[in-house]
Amino acid sequence: MQHRHHRRAGVTRRDLPSQAPRKRHTFTVMKNLFDQATVTEIKTRLHALTPASKRSWGTMTVAQMVEHCARGLELATGDRVSPRLFIGRAIGWIVKPLALNDDAPMRRNSPTIPDLKMDSDQSFDVAQTRLNNLIDRFTSGGRAGCTTHPHSFFGRMTPDEWGILMYKHLDHHLRQFGV
User: Fold this and answer.
1) What pLDDT, in 10s, does the model give residues 112-132?
2) pLDDT of residue 15
3) Residue 19 falls within a domain, yes or no?
4) How many domains does the chain have?
5) Angle at 44 between CA 38 and CA 45, to 5 degrees
C-alpha cells in the first residue's frame, strides 16, 4: 500500500492554480463615544430631533426614545444596574463580537433589556437635555468612567466595547427618527 503524498497522478503543488492571497487582519477604528468628532456628530443629530419627529420603525415616541437612550448611557456609567438575563448568559458571548465588530448599524426592532423599555411618555425637552448631559458625562469620564458591572445581555465589557455599544445604540435610534 502506497502512502498518499501531495502529488497525485504526477501533479505537483506548482501545477495547481495559485491560491488567493490570504487576507491580512486589518483593524479599523470603530466609531465610539470616546472620539470627539463622533460625539459632535451624535450631538448634532440629537439636536436635529423635534417633538414632532416621526419614527420609521418601532413603537416609541421621540421623547421615549431619547429617554431610552439616556437609560442606556446610565448602564455604561454604572448609574443603572440591570441583572444578567438568562438568554444573555447562554448566547451573549457569541452575539457580542458579532454586534460590536464593525460599524454596521444595529438591526431594526432588535430586542431590548427590560430596564430600558419605555411604557410612559416623557417630556421631550427634559429627556433631550438629560441625554445630552449624560453624553457629556460619559465622554468626560473617559474609559475609567465606565462601569465594571456586566451588561445584562453581553456580559463583561471593556470600556472600549462600552464606547462602541453606546455609539451604535444612539446611532440606531437616531436613524429610527430620520436623523
Assistant:
1) 998 899 988 889 999 999 999
2) 56
3) no
4) 1
5) 90
Percentage, residues of the chain above pLDDT 90:
76
Q: What is the CATH number of the domain that holds 104?
A: 1.20.120
Bridge partners of residue 11, in order along the sequence: 8
The one-character DSSP state at 142 is T
What pLDDT is attached to residue 73?
98
* 32-51 burial code (b ≥16 CB/10 A, e <16): bbbeeebbebbbebbeebee
Q: H helices within 78-158, ranges in order?
A: 86-87, 93-100, 124-141
Give every CB contact of residue 86 below 8 A, 6+ residues apart in sequence.
none
At 74-84, the pLDDT tens digits run 999 999 999 99
CA distance 174 to 55: 9
Q: Which residue has the cell 492571497?
A: 21
- Inside any domain, residue 94: yes
Q: Report how far residue 152's alpha carbon sits from residue 124's, in angstroms, rounded to the nearest whole number.
A: 27
77 located within any domain: yes
Query: Which secondary-structure segment (H or E) carries 172?
Result: helix 159-176
Residue pair 143/159 in contact by the 8 Å Cβ criterion: yes
Domain, as residue range, for 61: 30-176
Q: What is the pTM of this model?
A: 0.83
**Is residue 147 domain-resident?**
yes
